[in-house]
Automatic annotation (TrEMBL):
InterPro entries: DinB-like (IPR024775), DinB/YfiT-like (IPR034660). It comes from the Bacteria. This is DinB family protein. Residues 32-179 form the DinB-like domain. SUPFAM superfamilies: DinB/YfiT-like putative metalloenzymes (SSF109854). Coiled coil: none annotated.
């Protein structure tokens, strides 16, 4: 089965919009919800929002490098052949978006430190959303297939730049569930 690369790009844009809109709603919650410490000792909603920003920050470094390399590779590789042979394995990614679906050891630099206020975090996450869209626009003809980067989380292995952006969106979705769990525990 041949993947329609243009459809994939549009689907990722739709997923990004949904995930980032869901994350954005949490900035409007009351202080009790934002600062509630769950009984399992997990993060507060405010800490989760900062973690989403930090994770996006580091993923976007790799996405930027990958998109630049993909655009350079466009000069030497056969894009049509890559598109023809590409199949997006969505099942491989589904667990990434499910909170608690597997053990996830995050690097220390992605842990919230409380150094940013909510307005700063919200503005930065909004900028990150637009960065993702600009990379998708830059690689609008399938060029994102021309660079693969290793993703160790859940043994995904080498994934292309589009899949990295999708991963970023799924990661945010995963934490929306975690924030909902916090909110449910309050009531």
């Amino acid at each position: 089965m041949v993947t329609d690369i243009f459809r994939l790009i549009e689907d990722i844009k739709t997923h990004l919009k949904f995930s980032f809109d869901e994350v954005d709603k949490w900035f409007d919650k009351d202080n009790k919800t934002l600062n509630f410490q769950p009984s399992n000792g997990g993060w507060t909603v405010q800490q989760i929002l900062e973690h989403i920003y930090l994770t996006n920050f580091y993923l976007l470094i790799l996405i930027e490098k990958g998109s630049k390399k993909a655009m350079r590779n466009y000069l030497n590789l056969d894009l049509n052949l890559e598109i023809k042979n590409y199949h997006f394995n969505q099942e491989k990614f589904e667990k990434v978006g499910e909170y608690g679906s597997f053990e996830w050891i995050r690097p220390e630099h992605m842990e919230p430190k409380g150094e940013l206020n909510l307005t700063e975090i919200r503005n930065l996450i909004t900028q990150q959303y637009h960065q993702c869209l600009s990379y998708l626009d830059l690689m609008k003809n399938g060029e994102g297939l021309l660079c693969k980067i290793t993703m160790t989380v859940n043994e995904l292995g080498k994934i292309n730049v589009y899949e990295y952006i999708y991963f970023l969106s799924l990661h945010a979705q995963r934490h929306v569930t975690q924030m909902r769990n916090n909110e449910l525990e309050i009531s």
